[in-house]
Design brief:
- The protein is mainly alpha-helical.
- The protein folds into three domains: about 70 residues; about 55 residues, no CATH class; about 50 residues.
- Helices cover about 70% and strands about 5% of the residues.
- The chain has nine helices and three strands; from the N terminus they run H-E-E-H-H-H-H-H-H-H-H-E.
- It has a three-stranded antiparallel sheet with strand order 2-1-3.
- The longest helix has about 35 residues.
- The N terminus is likely disordered.
- This is peptidylprolyl isomerase.
Length: about 210
Amino acid sequence: MRILLLCLLLVIAKASWADVPAARVNGVTIDVMRLERYFTEYLQAQGRALTSIRNPTLYKRLRDQALDELIDKELLWQEAQRSGIHISDEQVSAQVGEVEATFGSPALFERRLADAGFDRAEYADYTRHELAAQQVYAQLSAVDEPSQADVEAFYQANRQILQGAQNQSDNSSVISEQGLQLARASLIGQLQAQARDSVRQRLRQSATVEIAH
């Protein structure tokens, strides 16, 4: 009887979460249920389990970080809609199929979806949003290939760090070539990170974001 009552209360709680806003982004509600789903994903990506978090301050900080990422995702989805980005049913089916294959059986996949509060149609819609957000993010944060002069200047400015990362060799030309390759990769990574930060800041500055307290 107690177990039945607990299950009933959980169902009622989940139903009520769907009506409680965690935030609003340009008038679009991110409800608590959506946040709870994403919070679980966020913790899994960090190799954490929800049950392992005992510190309330840490829990709140991580949950706030997850909400912050979810707001960015909603802004990217809205930007994708404005940009006319279309994700086909075939792309969605392929992505869902890849995820399902990792579970080994359709039945296990269905159970995991249900545990996360999804049915197949809802998960397909979620996947479409994710793919569109990723595509517009990649487009907006694309950077030009740095020139050779830029790479060499970056190498000279970060010589010690780059030399420590490259393979040791007595051949100075090999060291130089390896160093320049590392410098190019590091510089591109730095430029991409800056571009992504710029995209998030621009979208935030032009948006109306209300966080529930």
